Amino acid sequence: MKNLTPYILIAPFAVLIVIFIIGIINALLQSFGYIPALELTNFTFDYYRDIFANETFMSSLQYSLYISIMSSIIATVLGVLICAVLVYTENTKGISFQIVRLPILIPHTIVALMVLSVFSQSGMLARLLYNLGIIASQDGFPNIIHNGSGVGILIAYVWKEAPFVAYFVLALMQSINKSLGEAAATLGASPVRAFFTITLPLSMPAIASAFLIVFAFSFGAYELPYLLGTTLPKALPVQAYIEYIHPDMKHRPYAMAMNGIIIMLTTTMAFIYFALLQRKTKELEGDIHGQ
Fold first, then answer.
1. Ranges of the chain whose pLDDT falls below 50
2. Which pLDDT does position 240 carry in this prediction?
3. Is 42 in a helix, a strand, or coil?
4. In total, how many domains does the chain have?
5. Is 254 exposed, middle or buried (0-12, 13-18, 19+ CB in 10 A)?
6. Phi-psi region of 21 (alpha: psi -120 to 50; beta: other; left: phi over 0)
7. What is the span of the domain harbouring residue 282?
C-alpha cells in the first residue's frame, strides 16, 4: 500500500492535466474547422487566414501585446527594485516581506474592483482631489478606466505582478548578495555599484524567467481586460469570448483560432522559460563539477 501512496496522491493532479490537454487539443482541432457536431469535418487554415485579414482581430492582438509588454516591463523593473530593497535591508522574512507578498494572494476580480474604486472618475482619488480643491469637479479627473490607453489594466497588472517578480527573484538575489555582493563590498565597492555590476547581472536568468511568466499570463488573461478594458479595441481573450458566444455557431472556429494564437504564443513563452531553466541548470552543474 505504501508503494501506491505517491500514485494516489498525484492522481487528482494527473486527472486535471489530462482534462487540460484534452481541452487544448479540442480547441486546436476546432480552430482548424473540425467540429463534427456542426457538420464541419474538413481541416483548413481558412479561419486563421480570415482572422489575420480582419481589422478587429488585428486591433485586439496589438492591444493585448501592448498591455502584456508594458505591464510586464513595468512590473519586472518595479519587482526587481522591491526585491533589491528587501535584500539590502534584510527584510526578506519579516512583516515587510509579508506586505509585499499580499497582492499575489488577492484574486484579479478583487483587484479590478479596487482599481475602479480608487482610480475611476467617481472613485476615492477623484473625490479626494475634488474636496481638496485641486480639480473643479470629479469629471476633471483623468479618465484612465475603460479607455484606449489601458492605464487601468496596467495599474492592476503591475500591482499584482511586481510582487510576484520580487518573490520569484528574491532567493537568487539574496544568495548572490550574501556571497559575491558582500565580497565586493569588502573590496571597496559601494552597495549600488555591487548591485549593478554583480548582483543584478547574475540575477538576470531569474528576472528573465519572471518576465516571461507574467507576460504569458497577462497576454492570455481575461478578467482584468474585460472588467477594466475599453469598448474598442478589446483584448484578444475578450474578443475570442465574444466570438465564442456568437449566436451563429459557425463562428466557433474563429473563436478557437483566436485561442489558438494565444496558446501558441504562451506555449512559446513556456519553451523559452524552459530553455532558460535548462541552461541555468547546466551552468550550475558545470560549476559543481568544476569544484
1. 287-289, 291
2. 92
3. coil
4. 1
5. buried
6. alpha
7. 55-107+160-290
